[in-house]
Amino acid sequence: MTEPKLATAIRAVLTSWEQATTFEHRTNALACPGELSVVLGKAVEKALDGAGEDPVVVRQEVIAAPFVLLAGVFEPGELPETPEWFTPVPDAGGTQMGRAAAIATHGFLGLETVSYGSENSGELFVSLTAIPGDGKFAHKSQGGLRGHTDAVSFPFKGDFDSSNSRIAPSPDFVTLVGLRNPKGVPTTVMVLHEALAKLSPDDVRELKQGQFSFGSQATFLEGMQDILGAVHTAIDEPVLKDVAFGTIVRFSHSNVFPTDPGGAAQSAADNFEKACLQVAIPVAIEPGDVLLVSNRLCLHGRREVGGDIGGHSRWLLRTYALDTSELDDHRRHLGDWPPHVLYP
After folding, report:
1. Number of C-alpha atoms within 13 angstroms, CB side, residue 127?
2. pLDDT tens digits for range 33-83
3. How far apart are alpha carbons 217 and 163 in whole angstroms?
4. For 209-243, what is each residue's pLDDT tens digit?
5. How far is the C-alpha of 100 from the C-alpha of 3, rounded, in Å?
6. What are the structural domains, with CATH classification, of the chain?
7. What b-and-e string marks burial along 236-268, b requiring 16 or more CB atoms within 10 Å of the CB?
8. DSSP 3-state assignment of 24?
9. Looking at the whole model, is its pTM more than 0.85?
């Protein structure tokens, strides 16, 4: 199996990096994620090669997988109390190593760790925790989440948004880093090919037609207004797309609808939602774990979190990864923004 081999290599690299650096050095290195990704990624490749593994084969297997759980790749160590908002991520020993674990993994895979200026002010890592209060974010953070892909209104890689060619593609991977999970609340993953196997050929054909509207998820709304002057919506796009290596997906139970309600498109979307729930797999992300979820081949969600706030309650970090080797610079913010922040 690929996962244990890669996890062992990443763990060895991070342990050596932590022992050879000071807290201040790690803080400065994490402020330059592109450079750190190259350094740690090459070290992971060297560690695999030294263990008699072919890094190319390992990389290909991970990239092609719907999801990969890398267990125990870092030591969470020192952590403050669990935050009560997405940002900022506190700079502590445990959060440093968790962020480095994600960056090292992405570097080995040849992916860039990225964010979007319209979500949480472009922060590269955000905390996923239970948020106090009665607002929409509080309710959503404490409940469960149905299956979705992230940045769902943004185009597939290689495509352009019909209303604004600057809009960057959605990420290739959603990366979740475990810091605390005392109740073992599982993330749920829904493998696309397993869900499609439960649909009729007619439903699949409908989902491949450009007849669906994609709204922006809640964490992007405020930033969209600031940057674009309006909430971004993609109109008359397909949920499924056939590419060289198979079929890929962009979908959200709460933000994707047939442009014209009813009919065969509505039935296909409803059946797809049911199929995703039927194939959902629970994955409990424990402290020190990194879960890579393909944003093309898998949907993800979450079981109910509950109302435990702060203290030692559940705490994950989330970031994105994208193959930017063919991404034009005009689809980044640039200027006063860090280079990893994509538009909008």
Report:
1. 27
2. 999 999 999 999 999 999 999 999 999 999 999 999 999 999 998 999 999
3. 18
4. 999 999 999 999 999 999 999 999 999 999 999 99
5. 18
6. 2-342 (3.60.130.10)
7. ebbbbbeeeeebbbbbbbebbbbeeeeeebeeb
8. helix
9. yes
